[in-house]
Amino acid sequence: MTVDISPSEFRRLCKENSFWGHTSGCVPGYAQANVLVLPKEIANDFADLCARNPVACPLIAMTKLGSPNKVDNRLVIDDEDFDLRTDLPKYGVYKQGNLIREASSVADCWDLDSHIGFLIGCSFSFEAALISEGLAPRNVLEKSNVSMYLTTKMLNPAGVFTRCPYVVSMRPYKATDVEKVRLVTREFRKTHGEPIDWGYDAVERLGIKDLLLPEFGSPCRIEDDEIPVFWACGVTTQVAAQQAGKHSANDDYIFAHVPGHMLVLDIKDSEICCL
Amino acid sequence: MTVDISPSEFRRLCKENSFWGHTSGCVPGYAQANVLVLPKEIANDFADLCARNPVACPLIAMTKLGSPNKVDNRLVIDDEDFDLRTDLPKYGVYKQGNLIREASSVADCWDLDSHIGFLIGCSFSFEAALISEGLAPRNVLEKSNVSMYLTTKMLNPAGVFTRCPYVVSMRPYKATDVEKVRLVTREFRKTHGEPIDWGYDAVERLGIKDLLLPEFGSPCRIEDDEIPVFWACGVTTQVAAQQAGKHSANDDYIFAHVPGHMLVLDIKDSEICCL
């Protein structure tokens, strides 16, 4: 159902609440984005956070105040029916840093005088390139959500966004394949690019608590001849927004995609390098 | 001598080997840059490193292959007499990652078929703004070189540049002034922007060995009512180049400014925010 349709048709399924699953493997060939929607008081700080941390938070487009149905880059979304309030399969709704519910739409609580949406590149985009190089990630082969971990590596702070940790995604590879994997993914500058670390010693360097128990996504088997390879992950932005919300007196809603449940874009995986 | 002259005149003093000191406070009002000159084999990887780590490695201009007397941004250097082979007060000359000598010119060993120069923003540029806000850094008041430390915080890797640590500069401030200090410096996006961490607990987070013994620059007194405030520092790029040199079979020279002995630019401190 979600394979032979266009991005616009897929987003209509989300809009109509006919699809609410994770989007790994959905609408092959097209890029997907992490989504974060913030009140205007902290939106500038967040734009700075992205500029100061382009590997973890690669900003690819944003909405203007009052216009949830348009982004500032038509290469990314070019669709008159688009509406960021409804077109994600599943939203997390946060208040003061706490997830208060999941929802299939946030049209009822999006404040046109305040909310600004940010689209952040997603590592799903380079998975197609890895597949075509004979380096298919296990999570794709097994149709599971990728493993994601909280780390102790800190983003460069920006305004209210201080002490924000990197979240990383992990895909296991043979040590002899790592240089090829780095080379294939480094072209994808707007979707996290090459890995930020690799090997079992990286687990300690990144301060990952338990490789078998990812904080987000699904656990992933690592074979004896493989090592974990870690990429920066767009879920970083959600954790940052939650932390900022916790330390702010602001009572506004924050919205984000539910991890793995991304916004499907009109730009192809093969074109997103050019952004 | 170095106060009431133009950037071009100051660079001529360097060219003629009449000035070889550190440049803190020299040619007030004008920005200064960290310099790194690399063989072409690793220049693309370094440009990627800058793109992936804009806070530590804010690239503001570079030379083209074969043209050490011109940079790709005329706002930064606009001077027919400019020559990156001679216009620094003091160069470090490296081979395979080791400093083999300091020199007042590298004209004799710059390879026109290989070397590419990179100019990286320098935190001296925001010191003028701090001064005018009544927040003069101690190193400026005492006319000493700023304290700089190696950390265990890693850059996002790019090609041959893997496992490269951040180098930070430190200026002590009263804890109550930190938010103002952050606000003043964050506008300087191309010269490291706001601090990356602050407070005595940051010393541990950053893995700094001994606050009293900076790896580069001069030690700096911290009063009882002050805390250390840490900015990313352009010396990061030198350490990265040394590491890359150590792990490469390449026998080419690498050049860099000696820490604190920067390239004086034609762009003003007040204009460098706009780059």
TrEMBL record, chains A, B:
Sorted alphabetically, the keyword list is: Lyase
Tell me the Pfam families matching this sequence.
D-Glu_cyclase
InterPro entries for this protein:
D-Glu_cyclase, Putative_hydro-lyase
Q: Which domain of life is it from?
A: Eukaryota
**Any GO BP:** glutamate metabolic process
Molecular function GO terms recorded? D-glutamate cyclase activity
UniProt similarity note: Belongs to the D-glutamate cyclase family.
Give the protein's recorded name: DUF1445 domain-containing protein
Q: Which organism is it from?
A: Pichia membranifaciens NRRL Y-2026
Task: Provide the taxonomic classification.
Answer: Eukaryota, Fungi, Dikarya, Ascomycota, Saccharomycotina
